[in-house]
Amino acid sequence: MLVNGKWAEDWQPVQAKDEKGGFVRQISSFRNWVTPDGSAGPSGEGGFAAEPGRYHLYVAYICPWASRTLIGRKLKGLEEVISVSIVEPALSKQGWRFGDYPGATADEVNGATYMHEIYTRADPQFTGRATVPVLWDRKRATIVNNESSDILRMLNSGFGDLAGSEVDLYPAAHRGDIDAFNERIYPSLNNGVYRTGFATTQIAYEEAFAEVFSCLDWIEPLLEGRKFLFDDHPTEADIRLFVTLVRFDVAYHGLFKCNLRRLSDYANLKAFCRRMLDWPGIAETVNFDHIKRGYYSIESLNPTRIVPVGPQLAEIF
Ligand SMILES: N[C@@H](CCC(=O)N[C@@H](CS)C(=O)NCC(=O)O)C(=O)O
Prior knowledge:
This protein is an alpha+beta fold and 317 residues long. It contains ten helices and eight strands. The strands form three sheets. The protein has a four-stranded mixed β-sheet, sandwiched between helices. Strands 1-2 form a two-stranded antiparallel sheet.
């Protein structure tokens, strides 16, 4: 992580721990919003008006949080408006790195080698972890926001007419349901798999493990007879569910020891993932090679860094 703008120690996954040895995720620190007219959003300051070519997304294909924003960008037709850089899948001793691994890109905007350079460019004294996703503003040469739930929401409505209107990711009629669903699945499933995998005590592991499977067991019947959770197209809630489910059998079941059942044992969840993958644009955001290589590069969980051969995406879905 960075301490006062300097890279301080070799990268390791556990951020902070609670009193039981449970994994605690860092709170995102850049919270400004792109809005159609540059007025301030729900948090942070104004001055970030929607403009084509002004904003850039830094992402990792392995990362479910970053993948939320990649899917949002596709579904809102913003590929020509917002450019993207993709880090290499394997975490280096200095965290995320740009390079020539297949599917990764260089950083054409800032010319950085490591993601942490983007943080110190925005704040030379930054202390914290250099996470993805990051939404970068070329004009003010700073980070607009590094919280995926904010970025996903601003992709839906912050870009005004620059975005497509066919898919509303946060339809007014379903906002209460979407918020409640997001709130329930974040701790127990989206972050729950990480709390399981990065637990440092048996009790913290078992508690997180139980929450993961009770959450999956709760969602499975909800999807009975439905294409998507709340509408006839994907919304924020579907995106936030999908990014965790699609990684489940290939990374969380093995590496994170979420192994009571596989995702493919849940008929409705599996069929839901297939429908998401069939929605135009979504499959392009899922890179199984990066997902496998990235998770299995985490040395504290997999000291040999051997990448498992199976399963392939087509075998699961
Ligand atoms: N709250 C953030 C979390 C992002 C996050 O934790 N990303 C992980 C990748 S899955 C990361 O970049 N980790 C690098 C690190 O912690 O050093 C969000 O949702 O945007």
